[in-house]
Amino acid sequence: DEKEKEKEKGRGGGGGGDKSSREGVAVHGLPLSSSTPLTPITTTTAAPITSTPTAAANLASYAAARRKRLRRRNRVRRGTLSTLLKLVLPDSLLLLVAFTAGAAAALGQALVPLLIGQIIDYASIDPDQAKFLHKTSQLLLVALIASLCAGVRGGLFTATFANLNVRLRKRLFSAMLSFEMAFFDATKPGKLTSRLAADTTTVADQISLNLNVLLRSLTQAAMVLAFMAMSSWRLTVITFILVPVVLTISQVYGARYAALSKRVQSRLAHANGIAAEALGNIATIKAYMSHGETEAAYGRSLERFRKLHIWQALVYGIYASLTNFLPILVGAAVLFYGGKLVLTKQMSAGALVSFMLYQQSLSAAFQSLGDVYGALASAVGAAEKVVQLMNRRPGIGSGGRFIPDCSPELLVSGGDEDEEKGSSHPHSSLVPTYHANSFAPNVLSTTSPHLPIPFDCSVQFDRVVFAYPSRPSVRVLNGLSFVVRPGETVALVGSSGGGKSSVLRLLQRLYLPQSGSIRIGGRDVGVYDPKWLRRQMAFVSQEPVLFARSIRRNIILGLEEEDNVGGGDRVAIQAQVHANRSGNTNANKNMNASKSMNMNTNTNTHANTYSYSNIKTHPYTPPTMREVEEAAKLANAHEFITAFPDGYETDCGDRGLGLSGGQRQRIAIARALVRRPGLLLLDEATSALDAESEALVQGALDHVMAGRTTVVVAHRLSTIRNASRIIIIHKGVVIEMGTHDELIAQGRAYAALVRRQMQLTGGVGGALG
């Protein structure tokens, strides 16, 4: 007890038995009794006082952040409207005619109430039948002209914004095609299709409809106001008493409605994404019986969409109720005061009727403007997302403009050019030499062992570090370095996830490495014109992708006239080559020497109906039907294609599902062969074939790969064995390199993989790893 008393004294300030020191103590001015626990009271009482400046600072910070957000949102909206106006500019003449017709229609509609008032006055005050009929005829004529002008205005606006819809979709689709692969890794296809289909339609239709209404309402309001002021300025003042209230309500409504519209569009895009993902993988869903889970996820997304729509409808309902009541209130005031003016002979009955009609017309115009404001806010909300995608800059730049000189004269002479102009050959001794006539159309025949190599396709990876942007913390390549010499076939082997397929994606410049360099032909892949570079490559994946078009068009994918391969691109490429070659005296000398050396090859070239100019651009001209068939024969596809009733015009169906897996793979191989690539990239290209087809296609690939730079990702020993070199990649680095026999003799990782395969397959070539 004594110890407790001493503690109590200590909490009271250590004043011993002094009563004033225990009972007279006040915390922040509050008297305390001796029984009051001091520590809790001190803490709880002081907190609000000391936190007040912090709360004020937080409030100021919140207000500043909100102003910043509003400014940013306004900038975005101005930018969106500016972009839409630029897309509409090509139809400016149509819009000018539409505006003129709209003004004429508004003038005619404004004259109608005036003529009605005059007819009433003639009927009640001056019953002159002739004047009555004359004014009635004027009324009908004015109404007819106004209706025709309104129809012209509406029709032109509809046509104009149908064009806007097309331009929006083209621009957006073009922008999407330019985005880097990392964007598609992180974005669901359903969301993109929603932007491309639903949002563009919403934007174009809403803007078309509401700009039409906006033009009509503004011109109608302007004309009506002028006639109202001429009729009675007093009644005009009464009419505008509640206008500030209406404008305030419209502004608040528009802001709220726009925010809800953006959320509605976002929820709809999310639901579309779920549906697109499910329908695109319907076989997996059926196999795993996940109908219920998928349907429930789609239902939850739609439910959130529905709730937002209900809120949107509620906001509109409140706004509509207010905007419907306020005009009636104003009309009652005008009628009350106008009646007094008529009774005091300050206004005729017909003039009052005209004014009342004007007042109703003005109320309808303002109500339309309010509706238009909300609808345009909704359209801008959807347009912001579309324009944001359209204006998004690809994460990977468009690349350089360098195009090596691929003329057959230089290939024959093996002439070197400097780093800035023409093509350099750091491994020129390894580049095969070809005559000009080896570029003729018969290069695909089985009697022509070599296809043309358009430029030095050596490949060099130098300390490349890479991680996918969607998983930046997971390194796929960790300082990978290796070299592929021109005309060499290199097989990349290793366990799954080791980075083999990533090498092929980096070569196609679908992704950029975090560090290190990737070179083709001695130059960084970024300096080449990307279209030109990718036309020197052909890629066959382990999951072949076919489109819903004919087999022939799938084989010549990217080489049709519609792809500009025979027009603008070819002219641009020739111009760039000319720019690269201009001023290079040594190259010109080599060309002249080559021409003189190859005069006796001209006969063969002309026999094949190809001039030198044609030869230079041959890789960019659409393949002939004979070339398509030759490629299909090499890929062991011609026989089953011709067995179809429509042959090469047989439709492959959506994603090529009308064909078997092996058939799709062989068509994909034919697609690669018809391009005559200098660099062939194969990612398990024969994995979907049966043993017989694999043997035939592998033989064709071996035949075609001769003299061509080829990088093969493979697990099958039959594919790997004949490679010039085999590179073993493990966890993003090279751990072994050599020929099949050399690596077997070393007895390390590759030899272990081969032994494991032999044990699993009983000595028959199968999959490594």
From TrEMBL:
Residues 1-47 are annotated as: Disordered. Its main location: membrane. GO terms for cellular component: membrane. Residues 96-378 form the ABC transmembrane type-1 domain. The chain crosses the membrane at residues 93-120, 140-164, 213-231, 237-259, 313-338. Residues 459-756 form the ABC transporter domain. It is found in: Membrane. Residues 1-11 have a biased composition (Basic and acidic residues). It is a multi-pass membrane protein. Residues 30-47 have a biased composition (Low complexity). Keywords: ATP-binding, Membrane, Nucleotide-binding, Transmembrane, Transmembrane helix. GO terms for molecular function: ABC-type oligopeptide transporter activity; ATP binding; ATP hydrolysis activity. The keyword Metal-binding does not apply. It comes from the Eukaryota. Coiled coil: none annotated. Pfam families: ABC_membrane, ABC_tran. SMART domains: AAA. SUPFAM superfamilies: ABC transporter transmembrane region, P-loop containing nucleoside triphosphate hydrolases. PANTHER family: ABC TRANSPORTER B FAMILY (PTHR43394:SF19), ATP-DEPENDENT PERMEASE MDL1, MITOCHONDRIAL (PTHR43394). This is ATP-binding cassette transporter.
